[in-house]
Amino acid sequence: MPELPEVEALAGFLRGRAVDHAVSGVEVGAISALKTFRPPPDALVGAVVVDVTRHGKWLDLMVATATGEPLHLVWHLSRAGWVRWTDQLSDRPVRPGKSPIALRVRLDDGSGFDLTEAGTRKRLAVHVVAEPTDVPQVATLGVEPLSDEFTQDRLTELLAARNQQVKGLLRDQGTIAGIGNAYSDEILHAARMSPFAPTRSFDADRTATLYAAIRQVLTEAVEAASGRPAAELKDAKRRGMRVHGRTGEACPGWDGVPCGDTVHEVSFADSSLQYCPTCQTGGKPLADRRMSRLLR
């Protein structure tokens, strides 16, 4: 699933190509992806793209209509969705149910992009709205972790709000927007903390360490993704991971010195997390079940 760094890069990629172009066509390939019906997708036709921004993991293409009223095409790529840009789209219309294309947006110079989704579990969500906050999941997003509003004091408040595993807090979009499974693993490895550590166990020093790790990991990932074509972002993300998705591989350790341990995994029903016991849990492996109480 694309997270804050990749979604930020996708917004910049589309912004650099779509802004000031008029939408010449919108074709729906998967009606299940469309979560709103008024206004309809073709209300975007003729409108000029004025910006492409990000809200957490949501992308937002803003257009100005002929009446001057803005409309927003807002979408969440979920686990298997992606943006596929084409400099010259085929004239052949999208055939519903015949390809992974969920939505196609054509621009006035013949270019455009497809929202695609692989696999059988269709979770890609597309909304056409007057305001991004008309999408409930956008309206309830938490603080952006790279914004000025996300201070160490704010993190202290979030940790103390209720007792939960710190990995769950990092992934909760209503608390902190944009961090998912992959970057929460990377942040906790950088902070050298157990993913199951209770949030109310954090003192000032541990909070400062976690705060610094959040800012560092995300800032470096945004910089690494910035300017890359959409087609390269997935592979670039995988290459940049130190522990996530690297079960069984040697932990890279710190300062160029491997710690000597291997990356371990905890599996859940439909996801998994990766961590290093030596770096994060005092050498103790975590039980491979959701409610592990081995380490707090």
TrEMBL record:
Its EC number is 3.2.2.23. Residues 242-281 form the FPG-type domain. It catalyses: Hydrolysis of DNA containing ring-opened 7-methylguanine residues, releasing 2,6-diamino-4-hydroxy-5-(N-methyl)formamidopyrimidine. Keywords: DNA damage, DNA repair, DNA-binding, Glycosidase, Hydrolase, Lyase, Metal-binding, Multifunctional enzyme, Zinc, Zinc-finger. PROSITE patterns: FPG_CAT, ZF_FPG_2. It comes from the Bacteria. Residues 2-124 form the Formamidopyrimidine-DNA glycosylase catalytic domain. SMART domains: Fapy_DNA_glyco, H2TH. Belongs to the FPG family. This is DNA-formamidopyrimidine glycosylase. The lineage of its organism: Bacteria, Bacillati, Actinomycetota, Actinomycetes, Micrococcales.
